[in-house]
Every structure is written in C-alpha cells, then in structure tokens.
Amino acid sequence: MAYWLMKSEPSSYSWADLIRDGGTMWDGVRNNAARLHLRAMKAGDEALFYQSMEDRSVVGIMRITGTGEPDGPDGSWVKVPVEPVRPLAKPVTLAAIKAEPKLAKMELIRQSRLSVAPVREEEWKLVLEMGK
DNA sequence: GCCAACGTTGGC
DNA sequence: GCCAACGTTGGC
If pLDDT is split at 50, 70 and 90, which confidence band does A73 have? Predict the structure, then answer.
C-alpha cells in the first residue's frame, strides 16, 4: 500500500466538491511524471488532498479505489477513481510543511509544480499528526 | 540534437 | 501581479 499527494485548485475542484460527489475520477492530468505516478497507483492506496493556489493546504485524505484507466483524446494519459476518506481536523498549510525540517524532502516541496506525487510513510504519518 | 521562445503552474 | 520552475515546441 502506497501513499500519494494529489493537488487540485479549489476553484476548479475542491475537497467540498469531492465530499458532495462521494468520489470522482481524477482526470485531466497532463504531465509525464504525474502520469507515471497515476499509473503506479493501486486500489487501497491513500492520498493527501492538497488545495493549491488560494488555500495552499492539505485538507483531507482520499482512497484510490481502482487502477488507472486511459484518459485524454487518444487515451495516452491516465485517470484514477478516488473517494474521500476523511477531512483533517485542521488543514496542514504549505507554510507549516515548509517549516518542518522532516518534511523538507517531500516532493511537494522539491518540485512544487508536480500535481501527483509520492509521499513517504514517515511523511504521511507526520502530516496526519500535524492535522490533528 | 541543441537551445531559444513561449505557455502553464503555483508560490509569494 | 510578478516571477521562478518546468515542460513543450519549433527553428536551425
């Protein structure tokens, strides 16, 4: 079981939208590194939901409910089905993540433009702890 | 095959 | 609104 972080601009699709829908197909990702990660996902993996731009916070936890499917006009991109697990009691801001030395190696920090990134188990646990 | 130009993302 | 980082495109 693997851990991930997936970004969305709340003005485009927010945590509230995900709760309202009860789950969604995470599609529209057009970046090769992100595609490789989407392809590596398996049902049961969990992902942090990060709201970029105006929020800049991790706000909840999602579960991957299936494997990647073809996306885009020629089917060469990848989409995965996700469902919400639970919100964090308090959002973990980007500023808080940057202020924590143990999280300095997170892909979120290292490559800020990557919209789908792996999360190490230690990082996962720490972010959840910070969100209590 | 290199690299400049351009477009997009996303933090500040 | 600005700009850095990164990806892509296209001329040569």
Answer: confident
